[in-house]
Amino acid sequence: MTSASAQPATLSAEQAKVVLAEVIQAFSAPENAVRMDEARDNACNDMGKMLQFVLPVATQIQQEVIKAYGFSCDGEGVLKFARLVKSYEAQDPEIASLSGKLKALFLPPMTLPPHGPASGGSVAAS
């Protein structure tokens, strides 16, 4: 195996799709699914704890995949990959969709507080 970290990682849009699909698939691997479930259980739907428990596990899972494509095996590599994907999202709906699926794997769904728009507190534009 050659050392991919010697050169900066750059991916075409097509390559980015492949890597995104591989990262998403990595989250469904049994051992990673267990790791993510444990992290979510520890976080108890608390956003601060999500950052403390879930995000590091999600980052590790991504690192394991993207290192094969020349990204450094650290948080910086994941950030570079995320920036690269973001740069393709506007041009390619498939990349935007895959990116959304990836984020949904480790970001909690946003829920409205109980006193949201249904309670009549919204301001109507006139």
UniProtKB/TrEMBL annotation:
GO terms for biological process: camera-type eye morphogenesis; cognition; corpus callosum morphogenesis; post-embryonic development; psychomotor behavior; regulation of skeletal muscle contraction; third ventricle development. Transmembrane segments: none annotated. Keywords: Cytoplasm. It is found in: Cytoplasm. InterPro entries: P_C10. One of its GO terms (cellular component) is nuclear speck. Belongs to the UPF0456 family. This is Protein C10.
